[in-house]
Each structure stands twice: as C-alpha cells, then as structure tokens.
DNA sequence: ATGCGGTAACTTACCCTAGGGTCACTTAAC
DNA sequence: GTTAAGTGACCCTAGGGTAAGTTACCGCAT
C-alpha cells in the first residue's frame, strides 16, 4: 500500500497510478456494479483521494469506460485469436475457456463489466458495452452454429439461445472462480475439460 | 393504468395496491438492480406517489424484501415440488426449467432478485437472498450429483462447479426470454428440450 | 553546490443534485 | 365522523464532481 505519505508527495508517475486505478475500478465495478460502486472507495483502495481520480479520468463514466475498454479489448482479442486458430467445433468451447482463464487469471472481475445491468441504459458506456458484447456474441454464434450444424440442429433461433447460454456459462464459471482464488487458470481449464467430458460423454 | 384520478380518491384496497407495487418493484429491481432502481419510479409505474409506497413497505429495503420473498418462495417451492416428483436424472433439468418457466411466465424478472450483486453486502436483504440461493443451490447440487454419479464423474468440487453453472444457465435462459416477450412458457420449454437433445445427443 | 522556477502529483474543503425518507394534510367511502 | 387511501411539499444524506491550494522533484543558471 502506498500509505501515510505526507501531503503533496509526488508519489508515482501518472501512467502507473492510472493503471492501479483501472485495476481497482475493475474490481469494484465488477463486484458492486456501476450503480453500486463508489468513486471514493475506488480511490481509497489505491491509497489516493477522489480528486486525483477525477483529474485522471474526468468522471465516473470515464473511469468505467477505461476499465471497460481494457477488459473488452483484451477479451475480444483473445477470443478472436483462439477462434482464428480453428479446430474441431467440439473442442472450441474448451479452447476459448482456456484463453479466457489465462488472460484474466489476475483480473477475474473484468468479464463482468461487459454484462453489468446497472449501467445507465443510454450513453457511451451502454454503447461501448453493447459493442463488445455484440462482438463476443458473434463469436459465440459462430461457434454455436458450427457445433450445432455438425449435429443436425439448425433452427437459427435455437442457435441464438445456445449462444446466449454459452455466455451465461462463462459468466457463472467466472463467478465460481472468483470465489476460489487458489484455483489457477490451468486448474480451472482442467476442471472444465473433465466436466465437459462427463456431461457430453466424450 | 390507474390514472388521472382526483386527489384523495380512495382508489383501491391496500392489499391490491401492495400487490401491484410488488410486481412493479420486481420488474424495476430486476431490470436495474437494487442500487440502480428508484422508488419514485416504481411508484410512478403504478400511478401512485412515493409516500404511499413508504407507508405500505416502510423503506426501499422493505419493498425489496417483499419482492424477494415472493420470488424466492415461489421459486423454491416450485423447484422443491418438481424435484420431489423424482425421475431420471437426465430429465430433471428440463422438468425444473419447465416449472420455472411456467411459474414466472408473467414475472420474468423475479429470478434476478436472488442474484442481484448490487444489494448491500450485509443486512437483511443479503441474508435473505443468500438463504434462497442456498436452498436453490442445494437442489442444483443434488441434481448435479445424481446426474454425474450416473456417469461416473464424482469429484465433489467438480459437482459444485456444475451446480453453479446450472444456475448460470437458468439465468441466461431467463435473460434471453425477457428479451422475447412473445415466447411463452410452453414454447420456451420446447426450445430447451430441442437444444438439450441436440447438445447431449439424446 | 545551491538556489530557483516550473510542473506534475496530490490534498483539503467545498458545491450540488438525486434520491431515500417523512409530515401534515385532503378526500372518498361507509 | 371515523377511517383508510392518497397527496404536495419538505428534510437529509450519500456520493458525484470541483476549486484552490500544497509539496516534491527536476532542470537549469549562477
């Protein structure tokens, strides 16, 4: 903890402090949601006061957007890379999960920012989050289509539903993981492999 | 809508008005979360003002608890009844889904109250919600255990994870359903049957 | 080496509004 | 005329947002 420094201490360069604040913000927004999170609490976590937070990010929305863009871009890039590698449709879900777990091992709340229901219904945040969700949903839809056509189930609305359920599965796996900090990405991936094997009879 | 009545109109009996307010509250809390929902907005939906809401429910927490208890008891009772009927482990998930869809066809937001991350971390609401979740999780755990032991997968931690994923699946199905008001409970159940058939190769 | 400005990091103390919560009152119905 | 349904107008606090100042560091000229 940066702590008990005298007033006016220079502290650390802006870039580094911003990174700290984005990490703290991601955790707090992820935990309590946009509406439930408090700016002073986020500042306090880093050992700094609110005005600095506002100087760097302008507003609560500004901070949220910074957190959201970091989470969203890392997520979409990671998933895009994994999907681009291709492979058996049956194997894709596990590969994608593995990529997500590895990327967010030390940042487990990030995923939740894209699916926070408490952000204002209109505005920059809603638009940005919807955009990231749209991109991820497109991947999910692609994966679901490949998986289902390989099994002769082709109703497009069913496939939409499957894609959404898939994101819900990721959601709940991450929530479960958040509550078990000792389980690392590799263990989590292995667990999912085992579970899917058992459930789908592979 | 009860609308444009003159001031001081007797209106309707308390019981009926309370029921309306609980319905409106459930929708608003479900949509925006505890932290994001506004009491005046909930009153406005019913065509009434805030003081009446407070006279009947005492506080925001009081209203939330009323909504939560209605949702939670209906849910746990419905699931308990369905689980008590017994049947093939493979068939239970669909039976439970069917019960949930039927019970909440006209009250689709109710499910979300049990899983709202924006309620204060301590206090009556958190305790009550945790209790309902605990009961539902126990059913999920039971179902997951039966399903998995029938397939020779017995790691208890894996089963915990499966149970949690199951609740996440319900969550995302309901979210998907909320966005498609024309799909009724029967259609939703049929869709799930089709999807599970395709995915699990039944 | 020292003093001295400029700048960047950071704070204290404040403003302002949204929204939770209350009071005193009005009117319809029996 | 008593009671229950309902209201307009208010209070108060939490929390988003800001203004003005304080201190440390760095580069530089002497």
UniProtKB/TrEMBL annotation, chains A, B:
SUPFAM superfamilies, per the entry: Homeodomain-like (SSF46689)
Location of the HTH tetR-type domain: 15-75
InterPro entries: DNA-bd_HTH_TetR-type_CS (IPR023772), Homeodomain-like_sf (IPR009057), HTH-type_TetR-like_transc_reg (IPR050109), HTH_TetR (IPR001647)
Keyword annotations from UniProtKB, A to Z: DNA-binding, Transcription, Transcription regulation
Binding region for DNA: 38-57
Pfam families: TetR_N (PF00440)
Protein name: TetR/AcrR family transcriptional regulator
Organism of this sequence: Amycolatopsis melonis
Lineage of the organism: Bacteria, Bacillati, Actinomycetota, Actinomycetes, Pseudonocardiales
